[in-house]
Amino acid sequence: MVLNVRLRWFAAWSAGLILTFLAVPTQWRGLPFMLLTLSVIPAVWSGARRSPAGTRSPWWFMLAMLGFFNAGNLVWIWDVEVRHHATGDGGVADLLFAVANICSLAGALIVVVRRGRRDVGGVIDSAVAALAFGGLLWDAAVLPHLTAAGTPLVRQVTLFVSLFVMCGTVGALARVSLASGTRLPAVRLLAWAMAGAMSGNLASIFFTDPATGVRPDWTNALFLVGYACTACAALHPSASTVTQPGTAPADDLTPLRLTFLGAMIALIPIVGGVRMIAGEPSAGILVALGSAGIVPLVMLRIARLASQRRAAEKSLRHLATTDGLTGLPNRAACLADLTTALAGDPAGTAVVFLDLDGFKSVNDGLGHAAGDALLVAVARRLREDIRSEDTVYRLGGDEFVIICGSDDVDTIAARIRDLVTRPVPIGAGDVRIGVSAGVAHAVPGDTTDGLIIRADLAMYEAKRAKRIGALSITVAPEPVAA
């Protein structure tokens, strides 16, 4: 509640100062300007202090931005008001403003990266669209104006990079603020702050007198809007969560979105080429810089989608070959692995077919939840007790299979015997079970189904003992040659 009151008071305070700045005579405008820019500092400091440790870096960058901007403003006022330089911004002031812009961009990008880490595809798409818009705006309006004003190429490159990066940042912030699950007003206000700064830079480009370097005071009101939005973002209760990851929306590169990305890649060079064909000014180096900024983002987008597809395919393969209850490989995985083993060295392969004695009484007497808990506990013991080179599979129900080497059956039998000597803890208490096992040794010409069937029949022979809490093993005879 206190924060909301502070936010409302500051919003009213900043709106009043902006209106005062526009209404008072020129010689008095420095006062409301400095009052607003300086009052933003404690507001952002408050936002930084309220944020949890480790999440304050965006606000520290914003504070640095305010420090450099206010220092630049003081230099600018000294040059224009005291020394009466007619050139307006320049020299040290320009340098301080450039560093301030870098700090502002750094803080905004940290918010984009951390808040949008689960929506990388959407953030990239929005940034690409905003960059393409910035490139189009540059080619269609800004570049002709700068060329007509005789702006040096180095200055054009500086302005282009600044505008280009700001456009991309505003687009990414807009996406993060609108598509991150719980919409954060603080992020949206930061997007408006960046948009205000970008609008101020554009107004400075278009309305600065090329002869004197002086621009009208009203353009500074756009920067003041950016200052006010930054402070309001810091004062908003959601400021402490701007770096928390948002939700992960569906990310699918549909044909329409792919067409959109392709169009955005081609937009800047096409517009630049059309201007060159028409004989209008178009700086090739700026077209190259624009494409160089967009193409890596699109490539990153496509690479990410390819990675997601591979991960999805891997997940599907895992689901198709894994038992959902115990986490062991399932029947499909068992048959596939056994087929591979028989194709390699059938004479050295053995199958141990296990069935739990007493499982039905647990499942019927204590409930299906207890039965599931028993299966999970047995699966865990089997997985932990056998050797790493042998594999345990759950075929279904209370049936398990171990594929191992023929010479290792006795070792595995000893470990299974140890398993049945210990009670199995489940939610309802400890239970004791027995295990009936059938062993089948592969011979040349054995098939996967034939080997499994022989092991299964041997298990039923062992089960006739019906000794609960014991291990009964029967070895299947080799198949009779036809």
TrEMBL record:
Give any Pfam family that matches: GGDEF
Q: Which SMART domains match?
A: GGDEF (SM00267)
Q: Which organism is it from?
A: Actinoplanes italicus
Q: Write out the entry's keywords from A to Z.
A: Membrane, Transmembrane, Transmembrane helix
Instruction: Report the transmembrane regions from the record.
Output: 7-24, 30-48, 60-78, 90-113, 120-141, 153-174, 186-206, 218-237, 258-278, 284-303
**ATP-binding among the record's keywords?**
no
NCBIfam families assigned: GGDEF
Its protein name is Diguanylate cyclase (GGDEF)-like protein
Q: Domain named GGDEF: which ranges? A: 347-478
Coiled coil stretches, renumbered: none
Q: Check the UniProt entry and state the signal peptide residues, or none.
A: none
Per the record, the domain of life is Bacteria
User: Could you tell me which Gene3D superfamilies the record lists for this protein?
Assistant: 3.30.70.270
